[in-house]
Structure formats: structure tokens, C-alpha cells
Amino acid sequence: MTALVVIEPPSPSVADPENDVVLRFTAGDEDGMEAVYRRWAPLVLSLARRSLGDSAEAEDLTQTVFLAAWRGRHGYCPGRGPLPAWLVGIARRKIADALSARTRRTDLAVAAARQLSCPPDLLCAQDAVVNRVDVTRELRGLPEDQRRVLCLVFYADLTQTQIAHATGWPLGTVKSHVRRGLLRLARSLEASAGERAH
After folding, report:
1. In the CATH hierarchy, which fold is given to the domain comprising 119-197?
2. What is the pTM of this model?
3. How confident is the model at residue 12 (pLDDT cuts 50, 70, 90)?
4. CATH code for 19-100?
5. Where are the domains of the chain?
6. Any idea of the CA torsion for 17, 20, 25, 28, to the nearest 10 degrees?
7. Most confident of 51-55, 64-68, 78-82
């Protein structure tokens, strides 16, 4: 006697939970955003730590990446690649911005030290306070537009492109204000240093 073989009908496919999270995120669902953050924040944080070498800065950058992803979620196209790759792309751009800002701060400190004819590593605490007061005073003397862009560069660590976006000014106008403001600031600081020397 032949054994009867029962063939089970194929079970309906179970929905991919990761795909569901991505769909909810792109649809603007806040729970979807939270799930995306929980799932991929460690990846972004790890990349930021390796690139920046500073845990606190890496954590701040991770928050910035996910905020940018949330704001720009309509620009994500699943056909071009998976969501984690898109997030890593945003992270790399933000890391590049952070490293550029770090370089600008270092260059500014070196330039300010040169203005005072003193090597950066020999600036004492008193000189540093005087320098800060001088810079703040001279910034106040700049035309409003130049003062505004330099404050955004120095204190908010924004790139010129980010400043153009924030102010609504053309990039060329922002660059012009930065260049003129820096030249004027350098001349003023040089004059202040000369007065202190006499």
C-alpha cells in the first residue's frame, strides 16, 4: 500500500520587519523614526567616533545625522540603495563638515597667535582672555552683515554654504562678507596688538 503524502499549501510570506520600519520612516511616522534610530544609530556613532576621535562630538554628530535624515526623508529613494547606506552617506558629509570646522578653528587660533607674535603653545591664560575680549570688541565694530557671517563661522561652526542656506543670501555674497570681515578683523586686531606693545 502506498503512503499518502500530504502537501501543505505554501504559507503566506511574512512581511520584512526592516522594510516596514523604512516604509514608516519615509511616510513620516515618528515611531518609524525612533525604530530607524534604534536600529542604525550604533552604525553611525561608530563611524563618527572612528573619524572624529571624540566620543562627545561623535554623539552630537549622530543626532545631527538623524535629524537631517528625518528632515530629508522624502529625498530617500529605496531603488538607489538601502537606508543604512543612505544614512552613512549623510554621516560622511556631516563628518567632513565637522573636520573642516575643526581645521578652521585651528587655523584661526594660529592666525590670531601670529597676529600677536606669540606661538600658540605659549599663549598664557591672561593673553587668551585679552585676545577673546579684543576679538569680541572688534567683531562689534564690523558692519552688521560681516559680523553676522563671522559669528556664524566662529561660534556656530557653520560652513559658508550652510550660512548661505540659513541666511538666504547667495553663496558669493556670504564669501564676500567673510573675506572682507576677516581682513577688517585682522587689521583691527593687529592695530590693537600694536597699541598694547607701546
Report:
1. Arc Repressor Mutant, subunit A (1.10.10)
2. 0.50
3. very low
4. 1.10.1740.10
5. 19-100, 119-197
6. -140
7. 64-68
